Amino acid sequence: MSIRTIPFVDLKAQYDVLKPRIQDRINRVLEHGQYIMGPEVRELEDRLAEYVGVKHCVSASSGTDTLLIAMMALGIGYGDEVITTPFTFVATGEMIALLGAVPVFVDIDPKTYNIDPSKIESLITPKTKAIMPVSLFGQCADMDVINSIANMHGLPVIEDAAQSFGATYKGRKSCGLSTIGSTSFFPSKPLGAYGDGGALFTDDDALAKLMREIRVHGQDRRYHHPRIGINGRLDTLQAAILLAKLERFDWEVDRRQAVGARYTQLLAERCHEVQTPYIPPCNTSVYAQYSILVEDRNAIADKLKAKGIPTAVHYPVPLNRQPAYIACHENVLTPISDSISARILSLPMGPDVVLDDQDYVVEAILEAVETTS
Ligand SMILES: *Cc1c(COP(=O)(O)O)cnc(C)c1O
User: Fold this and answer.
1) 307-344 pLDDT, tens per residue?
2) How far apart are alpha carbons 144 and 312 in whole angstroms?
3) Mutation probe of ligand 1 site: the residue of 61, 64, 71, 96 with most atoms within 8 A of C-beta
4) Is residue 252 within 6 Å of ligand 1 at its C-beta?
5) What is the helix (H) or strand (E) element at residue 258, kind and residue range?
6) Using an 8 Å Cβ cutoff, are 241 and 26 in contact?
7) Residue 104 phi/psi, 5° resolution?
8) Which residues contact residue 222 at a Cβ distance below 8 angstroms, ignoring those fewer than 6 apart?
9) Which ranges of 108-248 would DSSP assign to H, the alpha helix?
10) Distance 219 CA to ligand 1 centre (A)
11) How many angstroms separate the alpha carbon of residue 351 from the centre of ligand 1?
12) Distance separating the N- and C-terminal Cα atoms of the chain
């Protein structure tokens, strides 16, 4: 086999297909000139709310800012506790800590890598103000179980759905499964912009109003600020790009599922040393990442790299082991998240993965695993 160069995420192939629509959308913004909160922003919010099946969508500047806005709207602040997972991108824990609250890290399920709902209840205290599961790698956490625990304790649930826009849980769409759903439009996410962006989803009218105000400096009308907010708006240009990309999104979700299923089929039947992702029957995944578990992960990643195959590690260090968080979490025991983070490896993934390239990646993995022990 000759060496190839495989993209980890192929944004160019998507652009080539959508080019006329994206350029048309961008040009319309350049013509009307409403770069801040232009008409595309509301149009996008309406489309996304309909897609998810909730009453309100509030777009925002990033998937990090959406988490911040959500928690500010829920009144989370100094000394409060928010229950979450340590096996996630840093923003999840970071926004809790930024508000002066304490992230309480709960270990993950060894099969889905999402928060283990059976470990949540014992960590609820009078200071607990919310539960924030993450729908990691494109599939939802066990939201019904989490919601029922939250209901019993009168707690809101924020789904950090930055990686799962388009996924379903028991036939319902991610982002519409709890008090607030929060997603990201970072370019490589399942629905990606050409820059930063994010969105919040809720059926709660009062929360939607609060989140809209917090997004614009806590303003309820021009230069009138009943509360503290942030500059958290989505750019009109990014909204325009997302509107163009939405036209292909259903097809992309199908393709992601097909590419994910094909990886699993090719790898699982030929190699028992590679653990492929487990998607429970109640879930569909949009495979924000296609991540396998292998022993000697770094050696295998090096061998793939030598063959022009990029990989990534999501995530090498759980949040409770990160320098910024370790002081208060040194004694938190999360053996499963520790073990998974040492073995996880993400492969090239996306709607535009070429079958031939996928075969090449699979062959390279099989060979790398065989020659590494
Ligand atoms: C990407 C991501 C975020 C942050 O989104 P940005 O748009 O990059 O700010 C938050 N949480 C998770 C789980 C993510 O994957």
Assistant:
1) 999 999 999 999 999 999 887 777 788 999 999 999 99
2) 31
3) 64
4) no
5) helix 249-268
6) yes
7) -105, 110
8) none
9) 143-152, 205-215, 236-246
10) 25
11) 20
12) 23
Domains and CATH numbers, the chain: 11-243 (3.40.640.10), 249-372 (3.90.1150.10)
Q: 201 pairs with which residues across the strands? A: 57, 181
Q: 120 CB under 6 A from ligand 1?
A: no
Question: CA 64 to CA 95: how far, in whole Å?
Answer: 7
Q: Scan for tokens 């040194």, then name that residue.
A: 330
Neighbours of 47 (CB within 10 A): 16
For residue 221, list its beta bridge partners: 224
Give tens-digit pLDDT for 208-233. 999 999 999 999 999 999 999 999 99
Which two structure tokens, joined as six digits, stand for 115? 């928060």
Ligand 1 lined by 137 (C-beta under 6 Å): no
Tell me the torsion sign for CA atoms 365, 371, 372, 373: positive
Cα 65–Cα 66–Cα 69 angle in degrees, nearest 5 = 85
Tell if the pTM clears 0.90, that is, is over it.
yes
DSSP string of 172-211, one letter each residue: EETTSSSSEEEEE--TTSSS--SS--EEEEES-HHHHHHH
